[in-house]
Amino acid sequence: AQDLYDALPDNSSLVDYLAFTRADGTRGLLAGILQRDAAGDPLIDLVVYEDLDEIEAIVQEYREIIQDEGAGDDEIEEIGNIAWEMIWEPITPRLPEDGPVYLVPDGVLNILPWDALVDGDFQYLIQTTDLRILSSPRELLPSSIPPAQAEFMVLAGPDYDTEEVAGSEVLA
Predict the structure, then answer these.
(1) Which DSSP state fits 9?
(2) DSSP string across 113-171
(3) Secondary element (H or E) of residue 103
(4) Shortest CA distance to 31 belongs to which of 73, 77, 94, 81?
């Protein structure tokens, strides 16, 4: 934990979400927030979201409406604001006014269009927050693996119809 804190840039925050299931079967969401206080000491805060099912529903609804070519700006802003109120607003008082926010989503939050969340002033999150989405907090830690010195190697899904498209002579 100290290594992560040491790697966290000045005037920034790390918000790490974790979806969980309680003993009674209900599901919740936890946001762990790491930053430095005024004295430079680690400051850790937790925000608990009681109902993950409700959050999942709004994320799905927002994704559907934002991808709907027929949706009006008012509809997108309305659902984007509801998602902002449910997911982002609870952590807002705990974040500094400026500086980057490193965000590690979990579960359905990985498909949330974060930058398109709409605050109470109808501004998109991308307009108000320097948001940097990570797949893991480890991305902030310096790597002990030296950079590769060789040529690039690209791995991708195979094209199973290559021979049919290019012909066996070209492939040979």
Answers:
(1) P
(2) -GGG-B-TTS-BHHHH--EEE-S-GGGGSPP-SPPP-S---------TTHHHHH-HHHH
(3) strand 101-104
(4) 94
CA–CA separation, 127 vs 73, rounded Å? 16
* CA gap 26, 69 in Å, rounded: 35
User: What pLDDT is recorded for position 82?
Assistant: 97
Note the residue count of the chain: 172
Query: Nearest CA to 101 among 111, 91, 109?
Result: 91
- How many Cβ atoms sit within 10 Å of the Cβ of residue 112? 24
Query: Tokens 């982002």 belong to which residue?
Result: 88
N- to C-terminal Cα separation, the chain: 54
DSSP state of 24: T
Q: What is the pLDDT of residues 142-162, one digit of tens each?
A: 877 787 788 877 777 666 556
pTM of the model: 0.79
